[in-house]
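Q: What would this chain look like folded?
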Amino acid sequence: MSSPTLQHLSATTWAWMNDQPGWGFSNSGVVSSNGQVLLVDTQFTLSATRHMLHAVASALPGTEISTVVNTHANGDHTWGNQLVADATIITSELSARHACQEMGPEQLTMLCSGSVQGKAAAYAARHFGGFSFSGVTVTGPTQTFAGRLEVKVGQSLVELLDLGQGHSAGDVAVHIPEDGIVFAGDALFSGAHMVVWSGTPSACAAVCDRLLATGAEQFVPGHGPLMSRADVTAFKDYLSSVAASAAQHAQAGVPLAEAARLVMAEHAGSWAHPERLFTQTAAAYAEAGVADVPTGTLAMVEGIARLACG
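A: My prediction, written as structure tokens:
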């Protein structure tokens, strides 16, 4: 298993790429111009964030991280924020409002400790038990925006796009127009199935259209390898296909748990974590007006865990 690496994408951009499709191993981004650096997302743990910051400092000596953009509030993209707390930390208003609903490091540590019973706890321990959240102090944004925001990094213009609800309650993309690159956060997944915590399948598909509308040629997903325009189009088609299958089951009155099993059997393919299709199925059921669809992180993880168990 190789370590994450800092990949040089263009004259002004780099991507911190994890090579693992598992939970918690996220990608980050760097935009650098005239001694200033904008960082897209931190990492899940302090040690992982320090590793990334050391790589950035080695590749870009003498620069200063003046701005951090959090693409959404999930811990695997934000729990290293305290190590760059001197920078301006920006996210969308929706993302900032949702942060209080996120599971904190203490809660996740307890869930993984073995002191909590149930399928959700067992699943969390299996996938998150190897991370140490010791010393993490959740550090939120110092600036929020809605719609669109332009940020100058040295001589480079960076465009922040408020994507609204999709993967999370508030997603943000970072577009560097002069380089044709978008850091998409978890609006895109590559090589693994998408988690839909708060949005709807149609909203997630519409976000793909917005990302393509930037005209960018290269996309850095929140997890997994780099993506082209063709990859984003294929990802949108996948989301639409899953949503259509789930909607048919909802219309037929199939119970959610059974529908999720049917959707996984049809759409699992070779991507990692097909059990995450529970969240897409649940979102489609909620969009179809089905009552008593589970909401909230713990309830979603319980559904994912049950689907993983077969």
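The first strand starts at residue 5 and ends at 8.
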